[in-house]
Design a protein that fits this description.
With about 150 residues, the chain is mainly alpha-helical. The protein contains six helices and no strands.
Length: about 150
């Protein structure tokens, strides 16, 4: 079962008060789509209802806290699962919510287009490959063996 975070308005991403940005983040949609739906509703459906609703949401919804990171809709409880897995092997220490690449499969979803996500992931693998080569060079060097022998004394 997917759980949504709490609904906040996000003035940092908003044009007026951040209501549409908060709704877009809550439902995992693109901000521009929520803005278009709001304007369409305002001009075509019921202008007084949408105007009063937007103003009410402006005053009712709290501002998004600064420490609250944007979570993708499809992620679910990945952080609680990640914290439970503490076994043998390597764990990426710097893996947090902001570093995950969220690929959107539909135009209206929030996230990166697949082409951009592929480029980002490729850059991360290249960075990790460079780090791995540096570690391998150090471990196979005589300096490493000398340091290891000195630390045994």
């Amino acid at each position: 079962m997917k759980t949504f975070g709490s609904l906040h308005r996000d003035p940092s991403k908003g044009k007026i008060a951040g209501v549409c940005a908060g709704i877009a983040e809550y439902f995992g949609m693109e901000i521009w789509l929520v803005r278009i739906l709001t304007l369409t509703g305002f001009f075509l459906l019921a202008p007084p209802f949408f105007f009063v609703g937007y103003i009410a949401a402006w005053f009712i919804l709290e501002k998004k806290p600064r420490g609250l990171a944007a979570r993708p809709k499809d992620e679910g409880n990945a952080t609680s699962h990640h914290n439970k897995v503490q076994g043998k092997g390597w764990h990426n220490v710097s893996e947090d919510e902001s570093e995950k690449v969220v690929v959107k499969s539909k135009v209206w979803q929030a996230g990166e287009p697949p082409k951009q996500a592929f480029i980002d992931i490729k850059q991360r693998f290249e960075k990790n490959e460079t780090r791995l080569r540096k570690m391998e060079t150090y471990v196979t060097s005589t300096e490493f063996q000398l340091n290891r022998e000195l630390s045994k004394l």
